[in-house]
Amino acid sequence: MQETARYGYEDREGIVQYYKIKYLDAGRKTFRYAQIKDGNEVLGMDGVTRIPYAFPRICDAYEESTPLFYVEGEKDADALNALGFHATTLGGANDVQAAIKSNPELPLYFKDIYELVIIPDNDDPGRKLAVDVYEAFKGCTIEDIKTLELPDIPDKGDVSDWLETCGDDKA
Questions:
Q1: Is the dihedral of CA 23, 126, 142, 152 positive or negative?
Q2: Dist. CA 169–CA 2, nearest whole Å
Q3: What is the pLDDT of residue 118?
Q4: Could you give the CA distance from residue 75 to residue 91 in angstroms, rounded to a whole number?
Q5: What angle do CA 67, 71, 76 make, to 5 degrees?
Q6: Which of 26, 62, 67, 75 sits 20 to 30 Å CA-CA off 138?
Q7: What letter does residue 85 receive in the DSSP assignment?
Q8: What is the pTM of this model?
Q9: pLDDT value at position 142?
Q10: pLDDT tens digits, residue range 59-112?
């Protein structure tokens, strides 16, 4: 099993609270979480309060009254953030409900956001994610929540695929 990506979940001050680690094993991707305990990395999330990915970007969107993009996965959030947008995620399509179950106050992190734009992957789990996110956050006094389905992306495609295919100039 080979580690191929590591995503740090930071608190408001930018301090990593835990990691989501992507592995490739015989051509199949898997994910594991690791937390920081007494300065050491420990696999698992026992006792950890889940937070949104790129949490400081949520704070920036709030302070600047600019749209916050919610995407399905850390790679896509990083791609949009690198272009100067404010983007976040709670992880993949299967992670949203687990994250909210472990931290029922999680939707409050999005309270009073000017505009939340949900960009689902182009597949059934992505469309379900868009509904789950909308349902979870609709009571958070977000001024506007909308879903943006990107054109010209393949089945199971995502924001990163769209940026690669269409180029940064369309972003």
A1: positive
A2: 34
A3: 94
A4: 10
A5: 105
A6: 75
A7: -
A8: 0.90
A9: 80
A10: 999 999 999 999 999 999 999 999 999 999 988 777 777 787 888 888 888 888
**Average pLDDT over the chain, rounded to whole?**
88
Tell me phi and psi for residue 159, to 5 degrees. Answer: -55, -45
Strand 68-71 versus strand 115-119 pairing type = parallel
d(CA 130, CA 165) in angstroms, rounded, equals 22
DSSP 112-123: T-SEEEEE--SS
Sheet of 28-37, strand order: 2-10, 16-25, 28-37, 40-43
| Bridge partners, 33 (sequence order) | 20
156-to-78, 88, 123, 159 alpha-carbon distances in Å: 19, 19, 5, 10
